[in-house]
Amino acid sequence: MATSEVRLIRSPISVIGMWLTTVTAVTFLVVFLADLLGLHTNPYIGILFFLVLPSFFIFGLILIPLGAWVEKRRRDRGLAPAEIHWPRLDLNQPGQRRIAVGIFALTMANVVIVSLAAYRGVEYMDSTQFCGQVCHEVMKPEFTAYQDGPHSRVSCVQCHIGPGASWFARSKVSGMRQLVAVARGSYSRPIASPVQNLRPAREVCEQCHWPEKFHGAVVRRVAEYSDDAKNSESLTTLQMKVGGGSARTGGATGIHWHTNPNTHIEYITTDAKRQVIPYVKLTDASGTVREYFADGVTPDQLANGDRRGMDCIDCHNRPSHPMAATAERAVDSTLASGEMPKGLPFVRREAVKAVKASYPTQEAAAESIASTLREFYRTQQPAVYNAQRQDVERAVAAAERVYRRNVFPEMNVQFGTYLNNIGHMDSPGCFRCHDDNHKTKDGKAIGQECDTCHDIQ
Ligand code: HEC
Ligand code: HEC
Ligand code: HEC
Ligand code: HEC
Ligand code: HEC
Questions:
Q1: Other CB atoms within 10 Å distance of the CB of residue 163
Q2: Contacts of 104 (CB under 8 A, 6+ apart)
Q3: Mean pLDDT score of the chain, rounded to an integer?
Q4: 175 vs 160: CA distance, rounded Å
């Protein structure tokens, strides 16, 4: 009897299943050990080993009983002798005992392997590597900016998914949709922003930034340079009145007043980028409601617009993916940091011109930027070219980096593609509401006096 049972499992399907599980299990264990020792770095290897291998492993496991079942059905129809019974298990017989112990041990081992695989799979899918590099073409702009931003030590999922099972499940569902879009090449270029259904910022940002803690002011220095030979610098120092406040310290003040737990601001927006805001509703700590209407607002706009509670990302919409609004700003920041040599005549003008031109790919851009800059100094400024050769090369490297950091032709991302809502110089930002034109029925406006927000020196 035992022998006929063994033979059932010897059916071709079951044998394939056994091979599959054994090979994948052994490979998986080897890779898992290597991973523990820190030996794997390539994201594609991660996908292969932690997502594909376990699927094959489980598939193999299913094949084994399936093969036995199919074999039994086949024998039942024709060949099978009528007296096939289920095996009578007798643990007193050493042979059967060994088989039973063997099966039990293998099952336990399989359970361990599957759980390890599932655990690593989930952990892997939550890694920055997975988010930023696997679909590298698609996420390249965000990943590049992220690595260079203030949150480069915060993983993508901490903002985009956050803690909790329901957001985890939602993210996996939308992740499947995104995978299909990537496979079919049907994703939008650039990827649309704002992200619909992003988790509310209060749940995300406040894991680390506690709104009641904010107080006082923050100093911002903005350095700008001109197109003359000396790359003349002009400095603006802004004292940003960040403010904050808590229930304990009394009234909230300053810029962070908007997200104080006692303040509630709702607004309606009529465009996909949330730039047009015809209506704002403020409910203050005492429950008093104030409604502001933009000049010329129509009932139709109010009825069909998107209604949203204001939170951190209505101002900090690029906390992790800051990209320069213009080529001038990007080049100026390298001059300010010293990456671009300030002492090289006309470097501001020439670098801006070079990174502003349009190129089909980042590689083409890098080549062209290098040759244009070298050519300019070689032919137009030969004395400088000879005396400051190293500066020319530093300028080339800095200009190339400015381009790679901000412009992604393959994804149609240019300077200014993603608007930053902090400020009001490059896009309306704060002035979407603070334009002296959003008024209550009794004529009170959301104001634009400069010193509400900052002192300028
Ligand atoms: C500090 C929080 C934070 C982190 C960390 C973060 N993001 Fe974002 N991400 C945002 C916010 C906020 C937006 C803009 C949302 C909006 O405007 O609605 C955004 C937008 C995006 C977009 C939409 C396109 C765009 O540029 O607006 C993509 C794609 C994206 N992030 C990918 C990533 C990837 C990949 C990582 C990890 C490498 C990552 N994000 C890490 C907060 C974060
Ligand atoms: C996991 C923790 C974490 C989360 C979540 C997080 N941050 Fe931060 N954030 C930090 C840390 C740490 C810094 C300081 C980085 C530094 O000083 O280099 C920072 C810095 C900042 C700064 C100052 C940036 C600058 O240029 O100085 C802003 C603004 C900010 N975060 C906004 C946000 C917003 C908005 C969100 C939600 C979308 C968010 N953060 C989510 C940890 C976090
Ligand atoms: C009304 C717009 C607005 C809202 C809403 C807002 N911020 Fe800010 N935040 C600012 C501005 C403006 C600054 C000043 C720095 C600057 O100009 O970049 C700032 C500064 C910061 C800083 C740096 C502070 C420092 O001391 O260096 C952090 C961190 C920050 N915000 C986090 C948050 C978080 C978290 C939220 C949501 C709870 C939030 N902000 C809501 C506009 C806003
Ligand atoms: C969605 C509309 C909206 C946006 C966008 C917005 N604000 Fe406001 N803000 C308001 C409203 C409403 C008030 C209250 C005006 C009043 O006093 O009646 C206000 C008040 C303020 C105040 C005074 C707070 C106090 O102490 O009472 C400051 C400072 C401020 N905003 C800064 C900013 C900055 C900086 C930005 C851009 C980063 C910004 N706001 C963007 C709606 C907005
Ligand atoms: C509602 C708040 C608010 C008001 C009102 C406001 N600003 Fe600003 N301003 C900001 C914020 C936020 C920034 C960006 C700071 C940063 O770069 O982080 C900024 C940046 C600036 C800058 C630096 C621009 C740059 O090149 O980066 C200048 C200059 C400036 N403001 C001038 C003014 C003047 C002049 C007024 C009065 C007409 C004014 N602002 C009114 C919020 C405000």
A1: 12
A2: none
A3: 85
A4: 11
The rounded Å distance from CA 333 to ligand 2 centre is 20
User: Does residue 256 come out as left (phi exceeding 0), alpha (psi in the -120 to 50 range) or beta?
Assistant: alpha
223 CB within 6 A, ligand 5: no
**What ligand is nearest to the CA atom of residue 189?**
1
Residues 45-94 have pLDDT tens digits of 666 666 778 888 999 999 988 988 888 888 888 765 434 445 577 888 88
Local confidence band at 1 (pLDDT 50, 70, 90 cut-offs): very low
Q: Which residues of 79-232 form beta strands (DSSP E)?
A: 218-225
For residues 202 and 153, the answer to whether their CB atoms sit within 8 Å is: no
Tell me: the pLDDT tens digits for 226-265?
999 999 999 999 999 998 766 566 667 889 888 888 889 9
pTM, 2 dp: 0.84
Tell me the residue type at 8.
L
Say how many Å lie between the CA of residue 268 and the centre of ligand 3: 22
Pocket test for ligand 5, best of 234, 238, 312, 426 (most atoms within 8 A of CB): 238
Ligand 1 centre from 150 Cα, in Å?
A: 13
User: Considering only CA atoms, which residue is closest to atom 36 of ligand 3?
Assistant: 312
| Cα 428 to Cα 432: distance, rounded to the nearest angstrom | 5
Atom of ligand 4 nearest to the CA of 315: 38
CA dihedral of residues 164, 168, 170, 174 (deg, nearest 10)? 150
Query: At 38, is the secondary structure helix, strand, or coil?
Result: coil
